[in-house]
Predict the 3D structure of the following.
Amino acid sequence: MGTHIVLLRGVNLGPRNRVPMAELREVLTGAGFGGVRTYLQSGNVVLTSAKKPELVIRECERLITKAFGLEIAVVARTRPQLAAVVRRNPLGEVATNPKRYQVTFLGAPVPAAMLRKLEAAAAPKEAFAAAGRELYAWHPDGVARSRLWAALAGTGLGVTATSRNWTTVTALLELADADPGHG
């Protein structure tokens, strides 16, 4: 049994795509996933399964569609993969506010041409780094007017993507490391 971190894209951000976390936990547990826990209301799930990450993703998407009538994209990482994301932390020296430090989790790597566009969109104070299937972005002035954030948050990357701030990323790793029987 492996621990998987399942990230739902674009849920509970206003009136659309409402997925109650308590109901989601019930649906996933009922489908045979173990130790199902959620963090916040924004589609962060930690669970255990013997299935490969690709199968966990497809099964979660199918279950969400069936239970809630919503087509929600899902990205997943194993516990070791998420630990590597945290360990890598390429902007840790400059990102001083974890709420303004974002990691975008990708379903697949983005092409080099898109990475150049993202780098060009960064404001002078912002920082950007790509590493495999993650994009790290530091927004010291917030995301409200950030062209980089707009590019990361939209659907123009050409791959499934969802972002979490550093506080959430590290909390999910802690949750993945916690005993699934307590939470």
Q: What stands out?
A: Residues 82-171 form one domain. The chain is about 35% helix and 25% strand. Residues 53-68 form the longest helix (16 residues). The chain has a mean pLDDT of 93.
